[in-house]
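Hi support team,

I submitted a single chain yesterday and got back a structure, but I'm not sure I'm reading the token output correctly. Could someone confirm the output below corresponds to the sequence I sent? I've pasted both exactly as they appear in my results page.

Thanks,
R.
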Amino acid sequence: MENKKGNPLALIPFGVFIILFIGSGIALGDFYQMPVLVAMFAAILVALLMNRKTDFQTKLNHLTKGGGDPNIILMVIIFLLAGAFTSVAEGAGAVDSTVNLGLTLLPGNLLIVGVFIISCFISISMGTSVGTIVALAPIGMGIAEQTDIGVALAMGAIVSGAMFGDNLSIISDTTIAAVRTQGAEMKDKFRANFFIVLPAAVVTAIIFGFLSAGDASTAQEEYPYQIVEVLPYLGVLIFAVIGVNVIYVLMGGVIFAGLVGLLTNGFSLTEFVTLLGDGFSGMFELSVLVILLGGLVELIRQNGGIDFLLQAISRRAKSNRGGEFGIAGLVGAVNLSTANNTISIITAGPLAKQISDEFGIQAKRSASLLDIFASSVQGLIPYGAQILAVAGVAGISPVQIVPFCFYPMLLALSGLLAISLRFPKFTVRSER
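Hi R., thanks for writing in. Yes, this is the structure output for that exact sequence:
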């Protein structure tokens, strides 16, 4: 790797972004009051005004070069297709049918375990933790009201399952961001990630089963579903796992979900087109953010900020194990600051890639670590969108839900053990 002199002052734009984004949340009591794009533009302006040795036009060229990187543009395309699939599948009734199928098959004394498992399946199929929570939170409330199960416990099960899929799903924006920033293959990241998180999911299910033992449902409600409406999610999941290119998977998923919706009269052809547009629109802000952040990172890199961070971590990391701990700590710290796991991965991704190259960490391994530690932090912060969403439905404080978010806790523990014990063996090269 080329050795350049690091410049800590080049990181000031990052600090501006984080202070504006989270500082406004602390001051206003709402962590989503400050539009993320406003904070990003402010950071870019600061970066453009720095380094007077470089003329303004050259700085603009660096900005556009970073934002127009092929990996960034491909990420945007995947984001748009993922949004379209989610919108069309929901319009076709896939979410409701999948949730109701699971509830129909669950025995009454395993409702919370079942809610966790359903939440896992929905989130890994939909690729969105917040979307999963919106779909399942009302059902979790209904279960809590009809049994002796605590509301906070039910909400914790939903958040836990939602973060499982957010971390693993091939159409999750966090997974897409992790894979693209590290140059990994989606199927490789999924497999490497799966072996790390599976023990956490199993132990989480056991804990929920123990805590809710004997709390059988008294509800006699029926949950209508149609198997055909579940097929789009199953198709996307199956083809992703066997290694089909993600672009093909998403395009096929959109077409399949569209056919299901049209054949079951879930929507008309005109409504199908509208749903496509809605799905694209829902990803516009994230897509623009990715492009702008790519440009900001390039400006910071040109000014020596990335080299400074890399050198600072390198002094402490003497092996690829140390580099992995560095990646985990970096993305976790950024996530605590931004309260958004996608933004944290996009922000920390370029530096994580350089750390991986420096210490011989495989791309699928670094992508997995980025996603694992961003998702674990996101699932535990009471000011994150996920816990705020379930707290709003439940009408309780977000802080009451955090102790029952067992999966994010165990996810972080599994990640740390995977680094310490060099597990799984086939995902890591020998230490240098």
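A quick pointer for reading it: Confidence is low (pLDDT under 50) at residues 426-432. Let us know if anything else looks off.

Best,
Support desk
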